[in-house]
Amino acid sequence: MKFRTSHQLVLASASPRRKELFAKLGVPFEIMASSVEETSVQARDFKDYVQKVALLKTQDVASHCPGKTIIGADTIVVFNDELLHKPKTKEEAIRHLEKLSSNRHQVMTAVAIITKDRQAESFVEVTDVYFKNLPKPMIEMYVQTNDPFDKAGGYGIQTAGALFIDRIEGDYNTVVGLPIASLFEKMMELKIIEL
Ligand SMILES: Cc1cn([C@H]2C[C@H](O)[C@@H](COP(=O)(O)OP(=O)(O)OP(=O)(O)O)O2)c(=O)[nH]c1=O
């Protein structure tokens, strides 16, 4: 499918998964990654946090792209009131996956849009993910693949992390990092893209 747009679109992301999902809109876009430091953000709760980070990334790129419409996103994994960031070490990745094993967690992805006339919009999608029991040797084998390190929560639902999933409630693409169906609706509503 291809939609019409009169906007010059910029995806504020270095993530190849977000690029692939955004390409489903069938409109031309360019990529410019932001260099925002995420951890210094103060927020009321996790939804507020992820939304603020998405907006910061998007504003950062917007400041370099006058006249263009910028879309950015941020994804977090929340387990028992705790944020499970991208793991920095194998030990941290193992600890994340041990927590997620046999349990439910939430993946939240916020999307921010800054239009060419600098109107800012954002929304958050939440998907509940239920993990199967993960035997320790399986966790260790997975962490050896290095798959966890660029991913919130330390797993990829679209990679071998698929083997851990019992079920999900919500949009699969929210877990991968860009709820493209909701983003499509929002972009139609804002008339950034048209049929
Ligand atoms: C839970 C989960 C997360 N992830 C990814 C999505 C995000 O890319 C990443 C969370 O990090 P983010 O900080 O949201 O994004 P990023 O640093 O990868 O890219 P950018 O800021 O440039 O847009 O975790 C998966 O790919 N699969 C999964 O199952």
UniProtKB/TrEMBL annotation:
Keywords: Cytoplasm, Hydrolase, Nucleotide metabolism
Broadest EC class assigned to this enzyme: hydrolase
Subcellular location per the Swiss-Prot or TrEMBL entry: Cytoplasm
Positions annotated as active site in the UniProt record: 74
Cofactor list: a divalent metal cation
Gene3D superfamilies assigned to the protein according to its UniProt record, in alphabetical order: 3.90.950.10
Molecular function terms from GO: nucleoside triphosphate diphosphatase activity
GO biological process, one term: nucleotide metabolic process
Superkingdom as given in the UniProt entry: Bacteria
Family: Belongs to the Maf family. YhdE subfamily.
Protein known as: dTTP/UTP pyrophosphatase
